[in-house]
Every structure is written in structure tokens, then in C-alpha cells.
Here is the input.
Amino acid sequence: MSILNTNSSKPIAGVAWISVFSVLLGLLASLAWVTNTSKQARLQALSPEAQRRLTIEELDTAAEIEKQRAEVQKLRDENTRLQKLVANNDSASTELNKSLQDLKTFAGLTEVEGPGVTVVLTDSKRPLDEVLDANENIIHDQDVLSVINELWNAGAEAISINDKRIGPGSWVRCAGTRILVDSVQVAAPVVIRAIGDSKNLYNSMNMPGGYLDQLRQTDPAMVRIEMATKLNLPPFSGSTAKEILEEPKKAN
Amino acid sequence: MILIPIFAFLIGAAIGWTLFQGTPLSGIAGVYLGIGVLAGLDTVLGGVKSVLTDEFRTDVFVTGFLVNVLAAAGLAWFGDQIGVQLALAAVVVMGWRIFNNLGLIRRQLLSRFYETQRRRRVEAERS
Here is the structure.
């Protein structure tokens, strides 16, 4: 008190006015606060740096996602077991179940194994003064995406990235400095495994002028391709929920 | 006494939080408001400083607060319309002024503290 009350009533009026506007300021600040609910809507409008800061927290929920996925997998396995059990009753349902299981394999919902190739993408360890652009040293989401694309093109029948199976609707993109595959963080080295004709896949991946060839021109150590006689890929564990699409009704 | 504006700020935040809980402004308006808040913070600190240096004028403070908040948010909006990051200019200038004002407030409080101590010592010697 004594600090401010040295003379006149002026300081008191000043403090009163300042306080009034402080209330207003606090109110505005609480409105401007970036919360979970307003984050999504505001992310686009924020600077890239701020976006990165705000999404890091989101990425820390990766462990939670992982847990949920394990749960989903358990339930799907149970579902398969029950379908088979029902199918044991008569031949019609056995047939139905067979086609159902085929479809599930096609959709990537089952564990599969077979020959194929393993592609490992690693960040380059070249010293920074040797490169024009430090960005070139790093494996990007685009690199992963292009490799998957070329693998499908070369006849791959199932693909996984760092033991995450690629299913229908799987996506690869970046969030800040990380690569996300179906919302799960993937860090270099990125191990891409594909089941298919291993010789075909191997040759296509080594094709001159192909995507990996371009990557190798930056630094040969960034790409490693190996044939494998037997690969085991886990089932797709992401969401299969459909909210919009419907079966068209056919008039008989 | 110096703590009153801080409490007032917290009260305001609490009111805003309870009234608009979970629905703070979304989209680009929230960003402009954030810049406005920065300008408001600058004005309030400037006000505190002027109280300490006995230069406080209510009219200057009130108009300053309103005009600064609106101008900062408005400039940020205008900048986005013409593709120039004017918001950055507002953030830099406001940030600089906030630190400046904080420094002046700290100096004022320190020198007042030493002044009262000195006066007390003089009075003790006199008696």
C-alpha cells in the first residue's frame, strides 16, 4: 500500500481503471485461449510453428491409440472364431464363411504370410556441409508414400510399414517433423515389408529411374532392399467403420 | 495494491471460462482476438507503469486500451487480407513494449522500496 499511496487519490483511480480493464482483458484471454475444442477449428489459421507445438500433444496419445488397436484386434479375432464356429453347423454357412474369410483377407483384416521384399528407408548420415538442402537427408512421408505406390504397382498383395498393416483407406502424411501412418507415428528407419512375387518386387524396386533410384542418388545408404522368403504381416488394426456409404437398393 | 489488477485479470478469465466454457472462439477470429489480448496486456502494463510514475490519465488509458485492442486485431485481419503478415509486426512490437513496461515497473517498485527504507532510517536517526 505504502508504495503507491505516496500522494493524492490519483493512483487509486488509476488502479481502479486498470483493474476494470484487466477484468475485460482476462475475459478476452479466456476466449482466445486455444483449447481442445477450438484447436481443430483454429489450427488452419495458426502459424506452422504454432501448429507443430499444438499437435505434439496430440501425438503423445499414440500410446493410447496403440492400446485401442490391440483391443480392436482382440475383438476381431474373437469375431473370426465365432464365425467359424457358426459355420461348422451346416454346409451353406460353411460356404458363406469361406467367402467371408476370403474377403477379410482381401481387405487386410487377417494376418498373412508369404515371400516378398523388405525396403528399409533410413535418414542419411552425410555431414550437413556436404548437402545443399538438409531436407534431402531426411525420409519424408512422400518417400514412404511413393514406395508403397510402387510396391502396389509391382504386384504387392499386402504391405506393412513398421509392422503397421496398410489397409484400404490407409494414409501416410506428416505432422510437423514426424511421419504418421493411420494416426500412428513412424520414425526412420522406416521398414516397409511387402508380400508378393519377391523377384518381381525386388527388380521393380531397383529399377533405374524408379523412386528409390532417385533417393539413392542423394545417398545410397538411405535405401536398403532385401528379398525375403517368408514374411509375416500383422492384420490391419485401424478403423473399418463406414458412416456415409450405403449399398444401393436394386429393384428386383 | 499492485496485485489488484492481477486478481482482476484472473476474475475476468474465470468469468469468461464459466460463461463460454468449452466454446472459446474458433477459427481465424480467435487468432485476431489473441493479438488483441496482447495489445490489451501491453496497455494495462503501460497503465500500471504510468500510475507508478504519477503520469496516469484515465482518458489516455481507456482510449488507449480500446484503440490498441481494436487496432491490433484489425491490423492483423487487414494484413491477412492483403497477404502481408502484419500480425507478426503487432506481436513483435507488443512483445517488445510488454517487456519494456515490465522493466520500468520493476525499476519503479525497487526505487520506491529503497526510498521508503531510506526515509525510515532518516526518521529513526532524527528521533
